[in-house]
Amino acid sequence: MKRAIALLLAAAMAITILASCGTNEKQAYLNAMLEGTGFSGVVLVTKNGKTVCEAAKGTENKFSNKKITADTKFCIGSVSKQFAAAAILLLRQDGQLSVDDKLSKYFPDYRYGNELTIRHLLDMRSGIREFYDVEYIDDAFTELPTGELRGLITNDNTVEENREILEDWLLRQPLEFEPDTAFEYSNSNYFLLARIVEIVSGLSYNEFLRERMFKPLGMTHTTFIDDVDLFGQPDMAQPTVTPQTVYVGVTMGLGDMISNARDIDRWLTSLKTHELLTEESVDMMTTDYTNEDDEDEEENYGFGIRPCGDGLFHSGYFSTYLTMIYTDPETGFNVFAVTNDDTNPNIDISEIGWNLIDGLDI
């Protein structure tokens, strides 16, 4: 995540503005960026649901000649977090919880349960320890369970067994800092948010998102890593390096989704139309909760999404998948860019995304 954010900021500083006039020129601008790079992935730019420009290049895997299209699915990594935040806000809209509920309400035996609230999880100000370590393995940045967890969470366990092990471990760890005194990005927060969704709704997290979010928005190409064979999923771009990450169960809420450009565009557009979330909920989700006392003032964060100027963005990393999304809910301008081959030295998804955001006259 920090690597992706650093790339985003570096790319933003290097951008030069292009004033394009028509759709053909916008498409030409995108084509020129991708020309000769060997790009494998999808880029989609829309405004109010209408395509401004798009590109789909490469093949779904090295054994097949099946071409990647705008409908091809990819792992979207931490872009998944905004869906966990939205699920919490939907339950709030239903009157089933408050973001200021103490965690003791949901995890009665948690020793910090009376000090921490759902809000602290949402805005990454909880102090709860990160359960992932990042290592560079086989040309890919790889997230693996930290310390003792690496021997306990394995793909030999069931989804349920790994989740139980992780939840028990998280609720036994000391806090890294006093709640609300600092911002620290931690995947652990969003795993616990997904568990709260299950506790409150009585549904599995995956079922809740399908029923309350995917179906209403028509996100028919979106699913979860735990529900499919990653290498046997039809119409999906495969990673260019076999993932080393232990992912069974423990990506829930934090990096568990598989989706495509059209589905994510429907979701981003809903932040403008309020098809799912009310205006109040979107305002809560998109407020920057970091402050001047935080160590890194550039780490803007709302609830599962990052405010950035007039818009919102987030990136997602998993194995050799790298995703970037951006939306300006006021104008309806959306950008989705993803690759299944982040090892390609000729392409930078972050640079593509920011060039499109700042370079297109939308």
Short description:
With 362 residues, the protein is an alpha+beta fold.
Question: Overview of this structure, please?
Answer:
By secondary structure, this protein is of the alpha+beta class. Helices cover 33% and strands 17% of the residues. It contains eleven helices and eleven strands. It has a six-stranded antiparallel sheet, sandwiched between helices. A hairpin with a 4-residue loop joins strand 10 and strand 11 (333-339).
Query: Which consecutive residue ranges, at least 5 long each, have pLDDT under 50?
Result: 1-22
Count of separate DSSP helical elements? 11
- As laid out across the biggest beta sheet, the strand order is 2-1-11-10-9-8
Structural class: alpha+beta
Oligomer: single chain
Order of helices and strands: HHEEEHHEEHHHHEEHHEEEEH
User: Which range does the strand content fall in?
Assistant: 15-25%
The 3D shape can be described as globular
Radius of gyration: 20 Å
Largest sheet: 6 strands, antiparallel
Overall pLDDT confidence: 90
DSSP helix fraction: 25-40%
- What is the count of β-strands? 11
Descriptive labels:
single chain, 362 residues, alpha+beta, six-stranded antiparallel sheet, 11 helices, 33% helix, 17% strand, globular
List the helices and strands and how they pair.
Elements: H1 2-14, H2 23-34, E1 41-47, E2 50-57, E3 74-75, H3 81-93, H4 118-122, E4 132-137, E5 140-145, H5 149-152, H6 159-170, H7 187-201, H8 205-217, E6 223-224, E7 257-259, H9 261-273, H10 279-286, E8 306-308, E9 311-318, E10 321-328, E11 333-339, H11 349-359
Antiparallel strand pairs: 1-2, 1-11, 3-7, 4-5, 6-7, 8-9, 9-10, 10-11
